[in-house]
Write a structure and sequence with these properties.
alpha/beta, Rossmann fold, seven-stranded mixed β-sheet, 9 helices, 12 strands, 19% strand, elongated
């Protein structure tokens, strides 16, 4: 029986990246739908859960994607609300690659040293990857802050993660490289999750910081988010700090994404969100 993955995307056009990885992860066919919302998803879900007999339902699964995590989370929750008894299929949430990218970055940092009790700063952390990474760092025992150019956005992100995961994060306004350098002055861990091609820190802002132990940068588009690092860094020691570049931990991100897709077809009961994906990332790292 064919393994069918239904890709429900909150954007108009489903992400081709997610489609490619879905095939690489073992799906026989990927059926994409764009513009999916909690209001119009019911018939799509019912088509997935009512068509195959109980023992064969594991061969149907749902992937939720899109560029906006808040919309993805709402859709993810709505899909599950239509499940009952054994009329369900496995479902995964990874809007904008947020869960898999965040999990890979934090898992690699955790493999490089203890995170417990450390001060961690997620630069430009109000996006999907930054928010989820901040949560994962906090769950590993770090004291975590999120920076943004506008304090309201940082506060909103911290509130949303408190509501969803029950973790306490600290918002920081830091609009310029100098302000971000000040924000990381006492940090032990820095993770940059800004927009592609935006330099958040210059080399002089971190190279001589004695408090810093580990850094990771999710940006692979020049200029990098953290100047003076390399996207290929895989635990490279630079100026006494352990550095992970976007491609350096990106290998784990892709492997993790593929592994999650494969797991969706093991049974019809799996719910893969941040917690489950991060646990798998730590095992793989």
């Amino acid at each position: 029986m064919k393994k069918l993955l239904f890709q429900f995307d909150t954007d108009t056009h489903p992400a081709s990246f997610d489609t490619v990885v879905a095939y690489d992860g073992g799906a026989d066919h990927v059926i994409t739908h764009g513009g999916v919302t909690p209001e119009n998803v019911r018939s799509l879900v019912e088509g997935c859960i009512f068509t195959r007999p109980p023992k064969a339902k594991k061969n149907t699964a749902i992937f939720v994607g899109g560029s906006q995590m808040a919309k993805g989370q709402e859709l993810f929750n709505a899909i599950q609300s239509f499940f009952f008894m054994d009329f369900r299929v496995s479902v995964m949430l990874d809007s904008n690659g947020s869960n898999t990218t965040a999990a890979a970055a934090v898992a690699k940092l955790a493999s490089s040293g203890s995170l417990k009790g450390k001060k961690a700063i997620v630069l430009a952390g109000t996006g999907p990857v930054g928010q989820r990474a901040a949560v994962m760092l906090a769950q590993e025992g770090a004291e975590v802050s999120i920076t943004s150019r506008h304090i309201f956005n940082a506060e909103q992100a911290c509130y949303a993660m408190k509501e969803r995961f029950g973790v306490d994060l600290t918002p920081i306004e830091a609009a310029t490289p100098d302000e971000r350098a000040e924000a990381i002055a006492e940090a032990n861990i820095v993770l940059a999750t800004g927009a592609a091609g935006v330099e958040l820190l210059k080399p002089e802002h971190w190279q001589n910081n004695p408090a810093l132990e580990m850094m990771a940068d999710a940006n692979a588009t020049p200029p990098l988010g953290i100047g003076g690092t390399d996207m290929m860094d895989k635990g490279q020691n630079r100026h006494g700090k352990i550095i992970w570049g976007a491609i350096g931990f990106g290998t784990l991100k892709l492997a993790l994404h593929r592994a999650c897709i494969a797991k969706l077809f093991e049974d019809n009961q799996l719910i893969l969100d941040a917690e489950e994906i991060f646990q798998l990332a730590k095992e793989m790292a």
